[in-house]
């Protein structure tokens, strides 16, 4: 299982970036540090993702379309969403940085940046804001999912998952009882720069089902849509 550095808690981070290359430069260091990362390329998509899951931090890239990003950030703060936000700008974009701070950004990073500084700033924001208030330990039947430690147990017995299996399971658990599309699951386990076979999600879900057998947690297939994690009391799930 992926892990952090032994001192900093594992974070769930949402990246909002409309440039594939730039997104990869943000995604890579955070995942290498052991953090769970989700990416959207438009602010309106970010709203839907934030409603469907729990995050510790937002990284908002304002290098290509600053106006749309700033408008979204202002709306976020007007709705009293206090999730810490780190903005990324070009070095010569002082006006954008000032506008972002006025809009509610908590910190900023100028590109090109040292990957270590990106990770450190995200971790610092979470520590300062005390935003790690999400429910880190979730259960489904006898399955226990600890998002902070990135551990899965059947009661007290650990279940060994690969990083991608973990990301899929966590996303399903966070959206338990709701339909999750294959596209959303693909975005949860890959960056813009990665290419997976069309049946990759089916393969990972099949492996998860085998590993979750007997835990009370079931993944149902919604034909033409995707998947749903069924709570034990739901008797309508079909594998």
General description of the model:
By secondary structure, the protein is of the alpha/beta class. The protein folds into 2 domains: 12-129, Rossmann fold (3-Layer(aba) Sandwich); 137-230, Arc Repressor Mutant, subunit A (Orthogonal Bundle). Helix content is 39%, strand content 22%. The chain is built from 8 helices and 12 strands. The protein has helices at 20-32, 43-52, 66-78, 94-103, 115-129, 163-174, 182-189, 200-212, and strands at residues 12-16, 36-40, 57-61, 85-90, 107-111, 137-140, 143-146, 151-154, 157-158, 180-181, 218-222, 226-230. The protein has a 5-stranded parallel beta sheet, sandwiched between helices. The protein has a 4-stranded antiparallel beta sheet with strand order 6-7-8-9, with helices on one face. A hairpin with a 2-residue loop joins strand 8 (151-154) and strand 9 (157-158). The two termini are 26 Å apart. 36% of the residues are buried.
Describe this structure in a few short sentences.
This protein has helices spanning 20-32, 43-52, 66-78, 94-103, 115-129, 163-174, 182-189, 200-212, and strands at residues 12-16, 36-40, 57-61, 85-90, 107-111, 137-140, 143-146, 151-154, 157-158, 180-181, 218-222, 226-230. It is of the alpha/beta class and 239 residues long. It folds into two domains: 12-129, Rossmann fold (3-Layer(aba) Sandwich); 137-230, Arc Repressor Mutant, subunit A, CATH 1.10.10.
CATH superfamily of the largest domain: Response regulator
How does the overall form come out from the CA principal axes? elongated
Number of domains: 2
The CATH architecture of the largest domain would be 3-Layer(aba) Sandwich
Structural class: alpha/beta
On the 0-100 scale, what is the average pLDDT? 83
The amount of helix comes to 25-40%
Low-confidence regions: 1-7, 234-239
Our count of helices gives 8
How many β-strands, per DSSP? 12
* End-to-end gap: 26 Å
Radius of gyration: 18 Å
Biggest sheet record = 5 strands, parallel
Strand content: 15-25%
């Amino acid at each position: 299982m992926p892990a952090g550095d032994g001192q900093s808690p594992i974070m769930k981070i949402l990246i909002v970036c409309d440039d594939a290359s730039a997104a990869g430069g943000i995604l890579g260091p955070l995942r290498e540090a052991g953090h769970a990362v989700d990416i959207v390329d438009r602010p309106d998509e970010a709203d839907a993702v934030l409603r469907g899951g729990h995050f510790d931090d937002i990284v908002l890239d304002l290098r290509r379309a600053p106006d749309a990003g700033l408008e979204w950030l202002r709306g976020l703060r007007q709705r009293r969403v206090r999730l810490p936000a780190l903005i990324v700008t070009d070095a010569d974009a002082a006006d954008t940085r000032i506008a972002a701070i006025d809009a509610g950004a908590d910190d900023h990073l100028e590109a090109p940046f040292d990957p270590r500084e990106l990770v450190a700033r995200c971790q610092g924001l979470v520590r300062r804001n005390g935003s790690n208030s999400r429910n880190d330990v979730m259960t489904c039947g006898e399955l226990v999912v600890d998002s902070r430690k990135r551990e899965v147990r059947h009661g007290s017995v650990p279940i060994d998952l690969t990083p991608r299996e973990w990301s899929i399971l966590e996303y399903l658990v966070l959206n338990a009882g709701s339909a999750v599309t294959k596209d959303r699951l693909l975005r949860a386990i890959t960056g813009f720069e990665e290419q997976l076979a069309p049946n990759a999600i089916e393969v990972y879900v099949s492996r998860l089902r085998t590993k979750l057998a007997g835990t009370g947690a079931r993944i149902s297939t919604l034909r033409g849509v995707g998947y749903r994690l069924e709570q034990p009391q739901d008797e309508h799930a079909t594998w």
